[in-house]
Amino acid sequence: MVSQQFKKQDRILKRKEYVELSDKGKKVHNRHFVLIYSENSKEKSRLGITVTKKVGKAVQRNKIKRYCREFFRLNRSALPENRDINIVAKKQSIYLDSTKTFQTLENLFKKID
RNA sequence: GGAGCAGGGCAAACGAUCGCCGGGUUUUUUGGACGAUGGCCCGGAGGAAAGUCCGAACACCACAGGACAGGGUGCUCCUUAAUCAGGAGUCGCGGUAACGCGAAGGAAAGUGCAACAGAGAGAAGACCGCCGGAUGGUUCCAUCGUGGGGCCAGGCCGGUAAGGGUGAAACGGUGUGGUAAGAGCGCACCAGUUUCCCGGGUGACCGGGAAAGCUUUGUAAACCCCACCCGGUGUAAGACCAAAUAGGGGAGUGCUUGAGGAUGGUCCGUCCGAGCUCCCGGGUAGGUCGCAAGAGAUAGCGGGUAACCGUUAUCCACAGAUGAAUGAUCGUUGCCCGGUUUUGGGUAAACCCGAAAACGGGAACAGAAUUCGGCUUAUGCCCUGCUCCGGCC
After folding, report:
1. CA geometry: angle A93, A28, A97, nearest 5 deg
2. What ipTM did this prediction achieve?
3. What's the CA gap between A95 and A73, in Å, rounded?
4. Taking a C-beta distance cutoff of 8 angstroms, is the pair A109, A79 a contact?
5. Is the Cβ–Cβ distance between A81 and A42 less than 8 Å?
6. Which helix (H) or strand (E) holds A12?
7. What is the pLDDT of residues A23-76, one digit of tens each?
8. Quick check: A15 CB within 7 A of strand B?
9. Residues 55-84 of A with CB under 7 A from strand B
């Protein structure tokens, strides 16, 4: 059984790291999300989520972040290792419910090489 | 049954699985501490957490005292830590009513403004109308002549604010006297203003009476005047710890009589060579604190119309993140909406109201960020009381 934990060390927390990632990383996107990713020096993949105020109000932004975290937590074993990944939400993403969010992210994560 | 007014309540519940944040405790790691890992236990968004519109606590900065400027408040009394808050009232306005709304001091300090319409709009004004006067024409009566009356015509001179018309507003209303016609021009009553007196109320104010001048428009969310109040910035406040690198100050030591470094196990040797060592303060990244138990909640009793106050008891690891936790999936039940079917009542029926069943759909507004007290705005459902209208007895 693979662990489904998702703790603080599995996340990108510093502004510096986000800036570095967006400078160096590769991007894939669809109409709801943008993924920015690059290899890291750690053993695990780490996740960061960016939802700006343009997307919606606080409740909607929180919902998107929780869906993204949940997807990452449940599907880590299927994902590539040694990556820093930033999920950037676009404005369209507030219209998705949980199952559609998961489907959309799954399709998008397949594009990561 | 319909329409409305006021007040209050809830913010789906339970279970399973996988997670997140904080705290306590414990295991392993370690010489020990911190930390990390695993286990167990406890806690983890709102009525508005929102808008950031007021008020405070707290912190730092500024500050002898006063005046001006600027800003705020503006019926009364009370409550509160405090307020542009709240309660109870007064007055005015709206509503049939329950009830609601009001920046509600001063317009007889001064200045300004009052569109359009209208004759005239602030010590107002004569357009129509009404009245008087002189003039012209005509006619009637009387007459020697002079004269008197009626009608018509227009312009001229003057009076008049009662009537018409305009306007949001035209300098009180009704009646009567008066007059050429009119007019607060006089008088009576009514309304209003100011002053004074009496009574009630803590007070705003209310009730009654007298006098005066005879009536003095509106606007102060226009300037202004009066009374009272007011330093500034906000937890990214602010306090503390503090790398690496660069640089500042001081002390010691050294500059061919060579500190220190490289080579090396060490010494000699060889090479490089003007710095090296220590201390101090400032300070960046980063971190810690601020940062969670209080103007606290619930219940009882006492005081008060009430806001609220006093007192007693009980409860509380009542969230503390910082790229920011409080979630996801599944199941059961409940809630709301929709049409369908069955059924009860008001009835002869249409129609209306209620109940049940299965089916389908939905679950609002919204996420703590230093903390409290208010206000405002957003929003789903439920309950209670009251008012008006209609029907039946």
Report:
1. 20
2. 0.85
3. 22
4. yes
5. no
6. none
7. 778 888 888 888 888 877 666 778 888 888 888 888 888 888 888 888 888 887
8. yes
9. 57-59, 62-63, 65-67, 69-70, 73-74
Give CATH for domain A10-109: 3.30.230.10
Q: Which position has the token pair 């599907």?
A: A75
- Tell me the per-residue pLDDT of A8-38, one tens digit each, with 9 for 90 and over: 777 777 777 777 777 778 888 888 888 888 8
One-letter identity of residue A55: V
Structure pTM?
0.72
**Nearest nucleotide relative to A19: CA against C1':** B323
Q: Name which of A76, A89, A105 is nearest A49 in CA terms.
A: A89
Q: CA A19 to CA A80: how far, in whole Å?
A: 22
